[in-house]
Automatic annotation (TrEMBL):
Organism: Metapseudomonas boanensis
Subunit and partners: Component of a cohesin-like complex composed of ScpA, ScpB and the Smc homodimer, in which ScpA and ScpB bind to the head domain of Smc. The presence of the three proteins is required for the association of the complex with DNA.
Primary site of residence: cytoplasm
Compartments where located: Cytoplasm
Protein name: Segregation and condensation protein A
Organism lineage string: Bacteria, Pseudomonadati, Pseudomonadota, Gammaproteobacteria, Pseudomonadales
Keyword Thylakoid: no
Amino acid sequence: MEIFLEAFEGPLDLLLYLIRKQNIDILDIPVAAITHQYMAYVELMKSVRLELAAEYLVMAAMLAEIKSRMLLPRSNEIETEEEDPRAELIRRLQEYERFKQAAEGIDELPRVGRDLTVPRLDAPQARARKLLPDVCLEELLLSMAEVLRRADLFESHQITREALSTRERMSEVLEKLKGGAFVPFVALFTAEEGRLGVVVTFMAVLELIKESLVELVQNEPFAPIHVRARAE
């Protein structure tokens, strides 16, 4: 009595096992012999009262059909025109074998939890310090250009202009920055003063930066620029 210890995942898996066991070329399957062995396995499954999947019976019917077609006498002309009855079965077996080999290759790879154990160590609680990017002069000039563009909307023809002092404007800027809070750079400008007022305010901010009285801050590159007074 022959006992099958191999576990098959389906009819194609069983067929591939029978072919490889006898070193048969998959492109030239002896359908009669393979069908006989396949049916013997199916009958064995029935005799031990194991539940037999319907797909095994479908494959048995397919093998019987191929066997009968190959046993029928055919003329030479029909034989050259008609496709080999085994062609579809061979194609399915080759495709199944490729996927089976790929699955076995993947299964041999090291697997976390089976072959590898990833150590875990809780890190001490740490407070991340966010590094703020430096504010370059080009970005400062771009912000000033945007304020100038808005100031042009309030440009009007006047015969006399009120004199604007850079030193007085520096004091006004410091007054706005009281308390150490961040103030948007563009909020220091008054568009209604026109281009002259924007330029004076910009010069006042540059003087304050030069004298280390204020600092410029950005949360991230190309983000809006903010100004705050330096701590004493």
